[in-house]
Amino acid sequence: MTPVLRPLALAALLLSCTGAKADDVAVMISGGFKSTYQALLPGFEAASGDHVTTLPGPSMGTTHDAIPQRLARGEPDDVLIMVGSALDALVADGKAVPGSRVDLALSPIGMAVKAGAPVPDIGTVDKLRAALLAARSVAYSDSASGVYIRDELFKRLGIEAEMQGKARMIPATPVAEIVARGEAELGFQQVAELLPVPGIAFAGKLPEAVQKNTVFSAGIAVAARHPAAGRALVAYMASPAAAPVMARMGLDPAKH
């Protein structure tokens, strides 16, 4: 076990020591935190003895695997890891336990191009605007970052009309995969969702003046079968020792 995971494993062991038996914990998770979660999960399972089943899907939307749609179908779940505002909506809808929200990380938006293609400089707002105007096609996600790109960023840059017809939202598929296949020249999504995908070059984060950080949070499902084990997993993911893993994956740890 790596030095990063050892303290996490100890934390999980202490959190689970009161459990009489191993549990099968179900986790619904959106893509922005998934790579960090996958890096941390083996240590939790090894220390707690619990088995975790992962059910991926967007935090919002109407695609088949979107977390609200999974819950509406009655799919079993213990832990929800998703965009914080979307988790709040599930609390209001009676699907997540009030007061169970724990913020895990802040996720900035970045841009990618196909590997081998010229990488535009987007280090300033003017350079970002120029890159967007010069691009033949632009893709963005159907989750929180893409909604911001479509509804706010283009307007703030004053190029909303110019982007019509060449910018499109990508449902259910990582934007970086679309870029890697050459189906879009520029792709925008949270950095943590861009970096793990092969076949792309990371161009950088949006400039701070127009950046939109998404908060990823975890909570407990109202219909949880193993709420105690779920809370132990959430505490494990929120541990300060997880910070180096988050940073490597393009996330900023939330402050508690």
Please characterize this protein's 3D structure.
Helix 1 packs across helix 2 and helix 1 packs antiparallel against helix 10. The protein is of the alpha/beta class and about 260 residues long. It is elongated, with a radius of gyration of 19 Å. It contains eleven helices and eleven strands. The protein has two domains: about 140 residues, Periplasmic binding protein-like II (D-Maltodextrin-Binding Protein, domain 2, 3-Layer(aba) Sandwich); about 100 residues, Periplasmic binding protein-like II (D-Maltodextrin-Binding Protein, domain 2). GO terms for molecular function: molybdate ion binding. Keywords: Signal.
Q: Can you say what the CATH homologous superfamily of the largest domain is?
A: Periplasmic binding protein-like II
Radius of gyration (Å): 19 Å
Q: Can you tell me the residue ranges where pLDDT is under 50 for at least 5 consecutive residues?
A: 1-7
Q: Helix and strand succession? A: HEHEHEHEEHEHHEHEHEEHHE
What's the layout of helices and strands?
Layout (H helix, E strand, L loop, with lengths): L4 H12 L7 E6 L1 H18 L2 E6 L10 H6 L6 E5 H9 L9 E6 L1 E6 L10 H10 L3 E4 L2 H14 L2 H4 L3 E4 L4 H6 L5 E5 H4 L5 E6 L8 E7 L6 H11 L5 H6 L3 E2 L3
State the main characteristics.
256 residues, alpha/beta, D-Maltodextrin-Binding Protein, domain 2, 2 domains, 6-stranded mixed β-sheet, 5-stranded mixed β-sheet, 11 helices, disordered N terminus, signal, molybdate ion binding, ModA/WtpA, ABC transporter substrate-binding protein
